[in-house]
Design brief:
alpha+beta; five-stranded mixed β-sheet; four-stranded antiparallel β-sheet; disordered N terminus
Length: 227
């Protein structure tokens, strides 16, 4: 359990590990490695074998090289974007330039939501997205992460994150009438989800868990009661 005295001041979280520059570098490396290996294998085989072998070997080599290269680059090549938590508040900055700030004295309002990935893309199907957004006086600061099923199921604070339902659901009460409170909550969460796409900061699961724990420790007056 985090305590205020056990956390270094300020706590800085590097975000957006899979930034655009890194993705382009990985793509360029994949193409470059594939071309080099393809040419080498084609030259060695000459007329003795089909070009398909060179194509397959090239793809295999490119995959292996870029797999390990990506892991290395994620550890040393940061996006320049970070979230800083201190007793003064929470700040999102890009290379030192402030993008959003919630001060400790601000009447911050948290929005915490989650949903399960239903289609396989960059994030595997079945993983869960968890997001925590702080809003105050026009400022909006959102951090989020993706967790595999085993990690999300074991996350102790999972119950504090409201489930984001599909668009335009009718939330009904026991008497069959629409629950306006839950409908309003879903509307706010969908708006927050739209903001996450625009300006959200992606964290690793470990950093996100530590970030939310730190908010509960530093600013309990902001955070919702744990469920």
């Amino acid at each position: 359990m985090l305590t205020a005295s056990s956390v270094q001041e300020p706590a800085i979280f590097q975000v957006d590990r899979e930034h655009t520059g890194l993705r382009l570098a990985i793509l360029a490396s994949f193409v470059g490695v594939w071309l080099v290996v393809f040419v080498l294998i084609s030259t060695l085989l000459a007329a003795e074998g089909p070009a398909l072998i060179a194509v397959l070997v090239g793809f295999g080599a490119a995959y292996l090289v870029t797999h390990y290269l990506e892991r290395y680059l994620k550890g040393v090549w940061h996006s320049g974007r970070s979230i800083q938590v201190s007793s003064a508040g929470v700040e999102l900055a890009l290379k030192g330039a402030q993008q959003a700030q919630i001060l400790s004295e601000d009447p911050a309002r948290p929005l915490m939501w989650r949903f399960v990935i239903s289609r396989r893309a960059r994030i595997p199907k079945g993983w869960s997205m968890f997001a925590c957004a702080l809003t105050a006086e026009g400022q909006y600061l959102c951090a989020y992460t993706f967790m595999p099923p085993d990690k999300s199921d074991a996350y102790p604070r999972q119950g504090s994150f409201s489930r984001l339902e599909p668009k335009k659901p009718r939330t009904l009460r026991d008497d069959g009438r629409e629950d306006l409170r839950l409908a309003g909550e879903q509307k706010r969460l969908r708006e927050a989800e739209s903001m996450r796409w625009v300006a959200g900061a992606e964290m690793t699961p470990e950093d996100f868990i530590a970030f939310v724990d730190l908010l509960y420790t530093r600013f309990p007056e902001w955070m919702p009661a744990e469920k």
